[in-house]
Amino acid sequence: MARTADHEQRRRQVAEALLRAVGERGLARTTLADVADQAGVSIGLVQSYFRTKSQLLRFGVEYLYKQGENRLRAVGGDGLPVASVRDWVFRAAETLLPLDGERRAELTVWLEFLPTTMSDPEMSRLHRDTTGALVDMFTQALEEARRGGELTPDADARTEAADLVAFVDGLTLHRLVTGGVYSDDAVRAALDTYLDRLLPAPESP
User: Which residue intervals define the domain HTH tetR-type in the entry (predicted)?
Assistant: First the structure.
């Protein structure tokens, strides 16, 4: 068991080194040697886990998505009250945005990886499956919101969930690339306004 744990820890160490290297150098300029240097290990050790750069990149993307999944799972489970579905949706969507140093670093690397989904079938599958899981999650929340009167009866929960994921991706892009008016506070306010329109408070009886 200890050997398996060491193996997984080493793979995580290499994945984190990959993210740092890509964040500093860009994906195209990052080599296995750069990753080994960031991890403080030999290139031979990196190659013992990942025979090609493509294998390493796929693992890095999986690691990124797992980090995001862990944050989503913590929403509502960290002892903080969730007053409504809208409150949960806001906090869940907020975890996907680059609103602290760790998430900015990860999502900067995510932007570097995205073009590879156009040419690498495995990268495309990873991105498609992860996006699909997000849409499913928000669809379930919005269906619950409809039952509770927070979502209008004629709204299609799945369409609205897909639109929300696309909106959050757009906020991420502009926060990272455009800056300026897209400050952390402005991004939160934009998400708040979007959800006010999507999930207005139920009318009092």
Answer: 8-68
**Buried b / exposed e along 190-201 (16+ C-beta atoms within 10 A):** bbeebbeebbee
Q: Quick one: which H or E segment has residue 104?
A: helix 101-113
53-74 vs 101-113: helix crossing angle, rounded to 10: 140
Sorted by where each starts, the structural domains of the chain and their CATH numbers stand as 1-51 (1.10.10.60), 61-198 (1.10.357.10)
Q: What is the pLDDT of residue 2?
A: 46
State pLDDT tens for residues 12-24.
888 888 888 888 8
Matching residue, tokens 């994906």: 27
CA dist 59 and 63 (Å) reads: 6
Residues 132-167 as b/e (b if ≥16 CB within 10 A, e otherwise) read eebbebbbebbebbbeeebbeeeeebeebbbebbeb
Nearest to 142 by CA among 131, 134, 153, 151: 151
Weakly modelled stretches of the chain, pLDDT under 70: 1-5, 76-83, 201-205
